[in-house]
């Protein structure tokens, strides 16, 4: 505990002790035994209120105040100690009892008030026993006087708790402001009138100021007024006001509590305020609870009616019903339930309500259609209970307009219909990702029927082709962003892998919490295969299945970017088959095509995985060689290709043999684009072809 908190508690304890002491000193003026037992002890109410509101630790302040009051009264030490102990144990014991009783410290309900009085009166017995015992031990009283002193002591403490504690617990700035905001003028008038009446009756004040007609019954008027109009808070203020004025009357020896012998009649005082307080507060609580119930019913968003069992005329119609029916209360009270609906006769309605009359059920529910005063119709759900109202058997009827609900049900029915007819597979899971709904398309695509997957986690569809990183990224987008869309491989019931285009959305409730996930997907396996096939055809030579010039250009662009980044060179080989046309002319295109396919396979075997061979014409090929330092690598590859292509190829027992001419070009030495390198390589290829022709002619001449 901080120093500031400790000092604050110390100051509060001292303040409570001072207040207790001052109130006790005033009460001791009415002591049955001088300086001790009294029939008025408001300090007990202050003590219990302090402990209820601020905690049991404030019993220390009560003890100090009671101890100081005993010293002030001139008692002997045994009385100081036992009386102070009893006065501090009294609220502690009451506080302990309240823990086991239905009680709230705002004393909002009648049972709170009764629990408070019961606990306080029980605790007061403890104080009365200890205090009276201290008087007996100090020889202030005899044993014969002990029962009477215990009774007086107990009555004083119980009365103090009955009047003061509810007042202190109920009285707050917020409560008073709330009441004054509603009926400020009336509340102020009530307090003033009650004060004047209390002065008139309890102190004979009118003898000095007004010549009013004195009547002890005048005090009842403000009590009833406060109980019925304002409830328990203002009622506790009026009672406390009477109590204070009554004490003033006792001190001044004036008013209704002064006997013919001009002495205070304390028994009458205690009895009067006990009865007045209990009756007024209980009436106030009952009235307040009924007002709250009335306000709740009248402000309810559902139509509420009360109609008599015998003639069925309405006795009560709430505001919602009047607004929905578009009629005044005067008009409504002339009607019966039969006037508001068109599908039930009086006999049919009474037959529906018969189980209530025979006590077979407590509530009857049914649906019907009501008709407004403007003859418009609306569907309703009706709940009827049998109640006592104004000493008559009546029916309390709650009517709920279900137009919106039926529209939602129709909308959901339409949604279910659309869901089932959707060509897209739809899967809905709960917040724990367990399947709660799938449609027919889901079963058609996956092979799983709805009844076999409900309650399962969709992970059983997993293909195994995606790692945990993929799924973590997917669910991060769903939970953080609200959804994910993309392509994913899953597995059918028969084990077949398929590619699906999927969209996943998180569905939130009005509080922003995820309630469901919905996944919609289509099988795009065939579509993707067709797309890939078309792409392959667009980028490859149909005969040899080698990349065509379009794909060669893409590969060159990629290789060019890499070469620029790494500072390497690119080699391009232009290959032309010598004397290929005579093979087609002599043996037919079938043999020529077979030869091209064989040579294409051989060329692919000669190159690295990072290189590419492409057919760019009838008997022309090009090879991109990446990541080289000089033309030497191209020369080595060229020699290898010439030897390989020159090998004999047998097609249907016919031996075919062909040679090739190869030209080479290097990036960046001979060009910066594919076309530039192809032109340079083409020129080099013709040079190679001329050299080979010259060599062949020389060999033939020899």
Largest sheet: 5 strands, antiparallel
Classify the helix fraction into a percent range: 55-70%
H/I helix tally = 24
Biggest sheet, strands in spatial order?
2-1-5-4-3
Number of domains: 5
Assigned CATH superfamily of the largest domain: Reverse transcriptase/Diguanylate cyclase domain
Structural class by sheet pairing and helices: alpha+beta
CATH class category label of the largest domain = Alpha Beta
Binned strand content: 15-25%
Shape: elongated
Any guess at the CATH architecture of the largest domain?
2-Layer Sandwich
Unreliable runs, pLDDT <50, ≥5 residues?
208-213
Mean pLDDT: 85
Kindly report the oligomeric state of this protein: single chain
> How many β-strands, per DSSP?
16
Distance between the termini: 120 Å
The radius of gyration is 52 Å
The CATH topology of the largest domain corresponds to Alpha-Beta Plaits
Task: Explain briefly what this protein structure is.
With 702 residues, the chain is α+β, with helices and mostly antiparallel strands. 56% of the residues lie in helices and 17% in strands. It has 24 helices and 16 strands.
Report on the structure:
The strands form four sheets. The chain has a five-stranded antiparallel sheet with strand order 2-1-5-4-3. A hairpin with a 4-residue loop joins strand 12 (612-615) and strand 13 (620-628). The longest helix has 33 residues, at 266-298. It contains 24 helices and 16 strands. The protein folds into five domains: 3-162, Arp2/3 complex 21 kDa subunit ARPC3, CATH 1.10.1760; 173-290, no CATH class; 299-401, PAS domain (Beta-Lactamase), CATH 3.30.450; 427-528, Beta-Lactamase, CATH 3.30.450.20; 540-701, Alpha-Beta Plaits. The protein starts with a helix and ends with a helix. By secondary structure, it is α+β, with helices and mostly antiparallel strands. Helix 9 (232-251) packs antiparallel against helix 10 (266-298). Residues 208-213 have low confidence and may be disordered.
């Amino acid at each position: 505990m901080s120093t500031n908190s400790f000092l604050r508690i110390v100051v509060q304890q001292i303040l409570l002790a001072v207040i207790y002491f001052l109130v006790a000193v005033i009460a001791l003026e009415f002591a049955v035994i001088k300086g001790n037992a009294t029939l008025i002890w408001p300090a007990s109410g202050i003590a219990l209120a302090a402990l209820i509101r601020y905690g049991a630790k404030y019993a220390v302040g009560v003890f100090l105040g009671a101890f100081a009051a005993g010293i002030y009264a001139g008692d002997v030490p045994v009385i100081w100690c036992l009386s102070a102990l009893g006065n501090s144990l009294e609220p502690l014991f009451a506080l302990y009892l309240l823990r086991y009783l239905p009680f709230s410290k705002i004393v909002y309900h009648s049972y709170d008030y009764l629990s408070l009085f019961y606990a306080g009166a029980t605790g007061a017995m403890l104080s009365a026993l200890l205090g009276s015992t201290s008087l007996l031990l100090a020889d202030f009283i005899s044993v014969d006087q002990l029962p009477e002193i215990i009774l007086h002591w107990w009555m004083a403490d119980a009365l103090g708790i009955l009047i003061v504690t509810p007042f202190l617990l109920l009285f707050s700035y917020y409560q008073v402001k709330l009441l004054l905001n509603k009926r400020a003028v009336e509340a102020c008038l009530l307090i003033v009138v009650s004060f004047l009446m209390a002065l008139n009756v309890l102190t004979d004040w009118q003898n000095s100021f007004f010549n009013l007609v004195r009547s002890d019954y005048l005090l009842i008027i403000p009590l009833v007024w406060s109980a019925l109009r304002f409830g328990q808070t203002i009622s506790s203020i009026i009672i406390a006001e009477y109590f204070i004025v009554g004490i003033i009357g006792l001190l001044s020896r004036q008013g209704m509590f002064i006997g013919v012998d001009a002495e205070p009649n304390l028994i009458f005082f205690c009895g009067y305020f006990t009865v007045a307080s209990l009756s007024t507060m209980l009436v106030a609580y009952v009235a307040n609870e009924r007002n709250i119930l009335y306000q709740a019913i009248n402000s309810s968003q559902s139509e509420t009616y009360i109609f008599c069992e015998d003639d069925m005329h309405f006795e009560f119609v709430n505001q919602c019903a009047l607004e929905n029916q578009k009629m005044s209360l005067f008009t409504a009270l002339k009607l019966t339930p039969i006037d508001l609906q068109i599908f039930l006769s009086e006999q049919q309605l009474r037959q529906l309500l018969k189980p209530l009359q025979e006590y077979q059920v407590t509530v009857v529910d049914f649906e019907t259609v009501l008709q407004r005063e403007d003859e418009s119709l609306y569907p309703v759900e009706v709940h009827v209970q049998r109640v006592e109202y104004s000493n008559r058997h009546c029916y309390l009827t709650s009517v709920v307009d279900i137009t919106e609900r039926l529209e939602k049900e129709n909308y959901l029915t339409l949604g279910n219909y659309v869901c089932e007819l959707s060509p897209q597979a739809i899967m809905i899971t709960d917040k724990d990702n367990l399947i709660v709904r799938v449609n027919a398309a889901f079963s058609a695509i996956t092979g799983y029927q709805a009844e076999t997957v409900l309650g399962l986690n969709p992970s059983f569809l997993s293909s195994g082709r995606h790692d945990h990183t993929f799924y973590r990224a997917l669910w991060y987008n769903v939970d953080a962003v609200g959804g994910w869309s993309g392509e994913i491989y899953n597995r059918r019931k028969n084990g077949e892998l398929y590619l699906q285009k999927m969209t996943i959305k998180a569905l939130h409730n009005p509080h922003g919490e995820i309630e469901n996930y919905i996944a919609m997907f289509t099988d795009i396996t065939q579509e993707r295969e067709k797309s890939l096939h078309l792409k392959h055809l667009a980028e490859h030579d149909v005969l040899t299945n080698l990349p065509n010039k379009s794909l060669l250009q893409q590969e060159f662009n990629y290789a060019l970017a890499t070469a620029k980044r790494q500072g390497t060179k690119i080699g391009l080989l232009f290959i032309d088959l010598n004397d290929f046309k005579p093979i087609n002319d002599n043996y037919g295109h079938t043999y020529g095509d077979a030869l091209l396919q064989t040579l294409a396979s051989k060329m692919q075997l000669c190159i690295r995985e990072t290189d590419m061979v492409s057919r760019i014409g009838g008997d022309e090929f090009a090879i991109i060689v990446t990541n080289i330092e000089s033309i030497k690598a191209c020369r080595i590859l060229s020699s290898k290709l010439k030897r390989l292509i020159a090998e004999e190829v047998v097609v249907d027992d016919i031996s075919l043999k062909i040679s090739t001419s190869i030209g080479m070009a290097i990036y960046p030495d001979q060009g910066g684009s594919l076309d530039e390198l192809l032109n340079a390589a083409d020129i080099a290829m013709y040079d190679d072809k001329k050299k080979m022709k010259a060599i062949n002619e020389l060999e033939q001449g020899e």
